[in-house]
């Protein structure tokens, strides 16, 4: 019996590690991104990147003055603590284990050698410093009141002066409540702005020797979504509007993707308008799909061919746009003839339970969103659910052709050039939808950045994007929300377009309320449109967030002179341990695949390297060689996918390719021989446990149980 209890404890401890989530990147308390100041704050000692503007700086100064602290040492400590709200890492400092705090986490011990913070040698215990200098000092409206714990950034209500010794029995009690330590995955406040280690002097982070692929399917798809039930199944969809449910073969089994092209899971082609640039661009399955059977499709429709294509035109008087002045597009297409749609469908009624359904009816359950597009150009269209909040994120391009002449991407009254965040679980009445001026059946999350701004569309989560093409959340750090944003002169979905050959493709790290610059900037470069009937936005009026990664078109294909970025995934599979913890992305032309590494960890600073790729000699489906090169001829890269084991897939015009063990392509990886389950050494022990599959984990637990019981 004792052995059973020990084994249960082991299982429970590792299960807790599965639930652990890693730290976030630089974020402010309200989850928005830090910004660059044009001038220095007058009170708080923050220059450059910060979370406070001059108004907030003045408010902190007033709060400090009202405390009326007589002791200069204590006053200095309290000033630094109040000003920590301006720190670029304030979201992490003021939140510990999802609990908001009234003051930042005060360093209460020497910073550990594995800390991500800059001082890896002996450092004074700042929490003890605060106690020693302030314990007997009267502080009015003290932020250290026990009643304020769990209330981040809140200004204390007016109260009589009090001492720390009036509210806390000892330094131990005080530092238990307000103290903490810095580790490789978290930071604490030591009385000055947080600074991460500069690892330039340390051993360089070498890129993997190559990316090994196996071809498991011949079909061409735009979207792949892992089945929410956690099995080895996934949904694949094409641009025409067909969705298939496929079974993915085990790694190394030699099997192919089990998918019957003649029997789709659902066929939406009657509603979808598809051409070289438009069609079904996204699909998403409700996090509780296995219980409720709800799934969603994002596509374009033609109002001349389908009566259900009946949305409001995005070119309207609210955004200073007149459809009659835009003119017709190619093939005589009228403005807003093509429309962006997000519709809900259900798998209920086709099986005993939704998780076992192998088909669904193409009958629309609910129209989530409809909006007319000003032209027949690329408009993004991906949808996905946030892993932490459960809201639906909808990626929308500027939809207006060359140079965004109407400046939709910067106009907060327009939803073009934006990432939207919608609540599709709380549906308002038809009357309320009309009253709020919504574009369909959804509600606005209360913490959306512009939900209280009458001059902005409340759906907006982020703005200033050209054509977001393939976004993903890091499965281990959901606050890392990556988006590839295609630059000017792009051409994709299999039809390259040659124009503006030297412009930029980028990867952005999306944060709440972030402005990513388009069309004031294209990537890091100032952009000037050829025409601007919709007006311009000045550089000084915005705080753009620059790309974390990117490349010029000419870097990729000097002969054809055009390119389009394909956003990918942070690689979290254990199949290739040398790729673990690196962001993978590619170019449409499939001549370039990059991996990007964050350094220092949690800094939001990435460095990229272009890596070779090849097909394994034992690929289930043979890969054709690319004439004149050593690369396999995989076709145009349309998208990436990820399964429930976190293995990454590349969806191309010639088939479905999976990233497999590097040794299968004769690439060397020192970690591969050590284990095929453990991640790279750069990860923490908690990651090592968390990254086992559930099946592997239960196998090991059962084995240990047997050992303990029979020894």
UniProtKB/TrEMBL annotation:
Its main location: membrane. Residues 143-166 are annotated as: Disordered. Pfam families: GSDH (PF07995). It comes from the Eukaryota. Its cofactor is pyrroloquinoline quinone. It is a lipid-anchor. GO terms for cellular component: plasma membrane. Residues 1-24 form the signal peptide. Coiled coil: none annotated. It is found in: Cell membrane. GO terms for molecular function: oxidoreductase activity. Residues 227-545 form the Glucose/Sorbosone dehydrogenase domain. Keywords: Cell membrane, Glycoprotein, Lipoprotein, Membrane, Oxidoreductase, PQQ, Signal. Belongs to the PQQ oxidoreductase GdhB family. This is Glucose/Sorbosone dehydrogenase domain-containing protein.
């Amino acid at each position: 019996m004792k052995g059973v209890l020990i084994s249960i404890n082991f299982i429970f401890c590792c299960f807790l590690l599965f639930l652990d989530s890693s730290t976030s990147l630089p974020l402010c308390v309200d989850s928005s991104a830090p910004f660059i100041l044009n001038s220095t704050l007058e009170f708080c000692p923050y220059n450059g990147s910060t979370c406070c503007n001059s108004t907030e700086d003045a408010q902190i100064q007033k709060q400090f003055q009202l405390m009326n602290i007589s002791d200069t040492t204590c006053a200095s400590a309290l000033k630094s603590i109040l000003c920590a709200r301006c720190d670029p890492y304030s979201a992490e400092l003021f939140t510990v284990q999802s609990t908001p705090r009234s003051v930042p986490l005060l360093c209460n011990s020497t910073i550990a050698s594995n800390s991500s913070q800059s001082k890896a040698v002996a450092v004074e215990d700042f929490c003890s410093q605060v106690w020693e200098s302030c314990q007997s000092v009267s502080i009015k409206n003290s932020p250290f009141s026990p009643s304020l714990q769990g209330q981040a950034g809140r200004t204390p209500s007016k109260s009589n002066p009090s001492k720390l010794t009036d509210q806390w029995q000892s330094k131990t009690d005080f530092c238990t409540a307000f103290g903490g330590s810095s580790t490789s995955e978290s930071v604490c406040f030591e009385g000055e702005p947080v600074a991460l280690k500069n690892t330039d002097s340390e051993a360089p982070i070498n890129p993997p020797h190559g990316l090994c692929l196996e071809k498991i399917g011949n079909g061409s798809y735009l979207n792949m979504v892992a089945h929410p039930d956690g099995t080895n199944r996934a949904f694949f969809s094409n641009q025409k509007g067909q969705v298939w449910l496929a079974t993915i073969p085990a790694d190394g089994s030699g099997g192919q993707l089990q998918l019957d092209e003649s029997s789709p899971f659902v066929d939406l082609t009657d509603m979808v308008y598809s051409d070289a640039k438009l069609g079904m661009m996204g699909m998403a399955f409700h996090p509780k799909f296995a219980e409720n059977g709800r799934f969603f499709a994002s596509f374009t429709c033609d109002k001349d061919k389908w009566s259900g294509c009946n949305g409001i035109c995005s070119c309207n008087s609210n955004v200073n746009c007149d459809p009659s002045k835009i003119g017709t597009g190619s093939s005589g297409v009228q403005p807003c003839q093509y429309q962006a749609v997000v519709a809900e469908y259900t798998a209920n009624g086709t099986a005993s339970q939704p998780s076992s359904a192998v088909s669904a009816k193409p009958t629309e359950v609910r129209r989530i969103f409809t909006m007319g597009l000003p032209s027949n150009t690329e408009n993004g269209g991906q949808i996905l659910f946030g892993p932490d909040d459960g809201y639906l994120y909808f990626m929308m391009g500027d939809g207006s052709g060359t140079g965004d002449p109407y400046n939709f991407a910067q106009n907060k009254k327009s939803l073009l050039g934006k990432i939207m965040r919608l609540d599709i679980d709380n549906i308002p009445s038809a009357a309320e939808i009309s009253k709020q001026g919504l574009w369909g059946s959804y509600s606005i999350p209360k913490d959306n950045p512009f939900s209280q701004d009458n001059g902005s569309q409340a759906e907006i989560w982020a703005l200033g994007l050209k054509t977001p093409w393939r976004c993903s959340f890091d499965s281990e750090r959901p606050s890392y929300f990556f988006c590839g944003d295609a630059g000017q002169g792009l051409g994709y979905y299999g039809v390259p377009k040659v124009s503006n050959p030297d412009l930029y493709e980028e990867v952005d790290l999306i944060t709440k309320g972030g402005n990513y610059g388009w069309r004031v900037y294209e990537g890091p470069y100032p952009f000037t449109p050829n025409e601007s009937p919709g007006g311009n936005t000045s550089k000084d009026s915005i705080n753009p967030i620059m790309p974390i990664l990117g490349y010029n078109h000419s870097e990729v294909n000097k002969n054809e002179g055009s390119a389009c970025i394909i956003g990918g995934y942070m690689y979290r599979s254990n199949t290739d341990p040398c790729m673990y913890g690196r962001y993978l992305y590619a170019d449409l032309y499939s001549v370039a695949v990059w991996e990007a590494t964050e350094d220092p960890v949690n800094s939001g600073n990435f460095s990229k390297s272009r890596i070779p790729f090849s097909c394994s000699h034992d690929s289930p489906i043979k890969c054709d060689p690319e004439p004149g090169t050593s690369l396999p001829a995989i076709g145009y890269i349309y998208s990436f996918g990820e399964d429930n084991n976190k293995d990454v897939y590349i969806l191309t015009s010639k088939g479905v390719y999976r990233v497999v063990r590097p040794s299968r392509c004769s690439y060397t990886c020192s970690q591969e021989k050590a284990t095929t389950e453990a991640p790279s050494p750069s990860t923490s022990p908690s990651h090592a446990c968390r990254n086992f599959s559930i099946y592997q984990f239960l196998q090991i637990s059962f084995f240990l149980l047997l050992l303990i019981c029979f020894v």
